[in-house]
Amino acid sequence: MKITFLGAARQVTGSCYYLEAGGLKILVDCGLYQERPFLERNWDPFPVPASEIDLLLLTHAHLDHSGLIPKIVREGFSGSILATAATADIVSIALMDSAHIQEEDAAFKRKRHAKEGRRGPHPEVPLYTTEDVERTLPLVREVRYGESLALNRSVSAVFQDAGHILGSAMIEVTVREAGVSDRRFVFSGDIGQWGKPFVNDPSLFDRADYVVMESTYGDRVHEDPAAVSVLLAEAVRRVAGAGGNLVIPTFAIERAQELMFHFSRLVREGGVPRLPFFLDSPMAREVTEAFARHPEVLDRESRKLMEGGRNPFEFPGLKIVRTIEESKAINDVKGSAVIMAGSGMCTGGRIKHHLFRNIGRPESTVLFVGYQARQTLGRKILEGESPVRIHGRELPVRARIDKINGFSAHADKNALDRWLDGFRTPPRRLFVAHGDEDVALGFAARVREGRGWNVQVPEYRDTVTLD
């Protein structure tokens, strides 16, 4: 048995783990790299022959876990992609949106570079196309939480609720080989927080031999979730008073819906002034519609709201933007507005156009409500870099830059500890992944010293032979 770490190893994005066990070659996730130093990996040939991979187990639909799947399909992967029904629904939206964005960005770069008489550092072609996504989606096979799936005679898998986003899963893989006792693997995916809107609490496990665990926020504690609405209201009132815009880089999956949930309550209760609110993300619109299609995985509070006819995604002043023309028309709005747009790390999409218009305005605020991976445009802005390069121009940052951590769909340090407390006996090995290098190393050291566990922090393309 061997496991190879093909992404999210001493970094956050690009989640991908290659498990060779029980006669199968299995990928767990196949994510897009979003940190600038690692972008070239997206374009490199996949590290193992795609045609030799038997199965792909998908924890959830975020692109840093799913965004390279069409590329490996183009390179020859033809096995089944196992995912929950909600993930299957949302990943079809996410991958098609990703392909559209890459096609649009490639066309925009070609046009700009032709005008400037130069070539950029990255190819002026899309990483994959909508046709590649259309070849990918028929491979997806839906599974249910808690269902034991026989992958072959020796290997089975069970998907459990991760409490991260709609349909997200932790995956338990059991390998049975002659002459040895069963070996149980747990892949945490992204571990959610307890008590979040829409989703159930994360699942716990009492035992495993090998655990691959995320560590995104392994070095910090989130703000009290109860403070989120207060901080949002303050931000809206501030820009309304200054005459600027509140620009929120927004992840289309879960974060957009949670923002609307809070804004809906604030508007209806009079906690914020009546302003136009724009959700400028076609993907977020489609994902929001997917929430209504999957009430079976919503938490009790959200189901009750839906059943009572109180749609948390509708409120006075909200306009869900559909076309490019409607997006451009936001620039003509007089007075203040709240603009939510993707991508969440400002690496592409319509948010870059709104930043281009607002980043130099002292009266505007850019509010981050999600994780910003290192070397992304969002992280540079958050850390105070000025000027920043947007659409080929160096722009001074004069807008106010704020952040609310309580939104995160990731477990913080305390919640990660709570998840580890579920194990009654230590695993043979705990692999800490999906975190910036210093964060992952620090979290691993704390677990090693505090619990006495065998903890490793693998590097990219490390292969570990298991007992």
Main attributes of the structure:
7-stranded mixed beta sheet; globular; Rossmann fold; 2 domains; Metallo-beta-lactamase, Chain A; alpha/beta; 467 residues; 14 helices
Number of domains: 2
**Shape descriptor:** globular
Our measurement of the CA-to-CA distance between the termini, rounded to an integer number of angstroms, reads 7 Å
CATH architectural category of the largest domain: 4-Layer Sandwich
- Rg over CA atoms, rounded to whole Å, is 22 Å
Total of helices? 14
> Which structural class do the helices and strands define?
alpha/beta
Largest sheet: number of strands, sense, barrel closure: 7 strands, mixed
Assign the CATH class of the largest domain.
Alpha Beta
Mean pLDDT, nearest integer?
A: 92
In the CATH hierarchy, what is the superfamily of the largest domain? Ribonuclease Z/Hydroxyacylglutathione hydrolase-like
Helix content: 25-40%
Low-pLDDT residue intervals, each spanning 5 or more residues: none
CATH topology of the largest domain: Metallo-beta-lactamase, Chain A
Number of strands: 22
